[in-house]
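Task 17 of the worksheet. Students: predict the tertiary structure of the chain below and write it out as structure tokens. Keep your answer in the requested format; marks are given for formatting as well as content.
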Amino acid sequence: MTPDLSYVDTWLFDLDNTLYPEESGFMTQFESKMTEFVEKVTGLPNDEAFALQKKYYAEHGLTLTGLIRNHGVDPKDFFALHHDLSLEALVEDPELLVALAKLPGRRFVFTNADDRHAERVMARLGLTHLFDEVFHIHSFGYAPKPDPLGFQRMIDAHGMDPKTTAFFEDSVKNLKPAKDLGMTTVLVGPRARGTEADYVDYKTHKLAPFLNHARLKEAA
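Model answer:
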């Protein structure tokens, strides 16, 4: 079935593992660095630090939130973990660049990462010129997805109409607040097809073919 997105005029995309494939392995670097960071902050052995990292992520949507609330971590120290990640695993996707350029209306990135990480990754992927703005963790005052407050702050900041907004994400739990607000939700990635959440409107393994196949609003 051809996805009917002919009513959409605002396009909202998560960054990591959405605008590039999870299979790139890029974010595995960050996972190991984050566990080491939790080890250092808490003094826990590696396996317990990893378990705590996942616990905070499950509870708050971002490991950092748990580290701030329970250990007084400075967000700048946490986000510095991203800043020297090797970008070698990331490559431009010409099909995706063309598909994004054809989308009518405004395009935004909505990420729990910080501005520096987003800038580096988007430049590497050749995406920077295709987006109106990046709404990053500093933009929404450390209310990370799936916190509804972060979504509301983004909507207010950019005058978005949720009913004409499509949100693309690789994390299923981050789509629920978007759906509750009235957005069209698209789950992206290798596990998308097996998801049964009723707040997911569309599922796709790869982003570019989905966008190319969708019915879009015609130019005025």
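Marker's comment: The chain has two domains: 4-22+87-216, 28-79. The longest strand covers residues 106-110.
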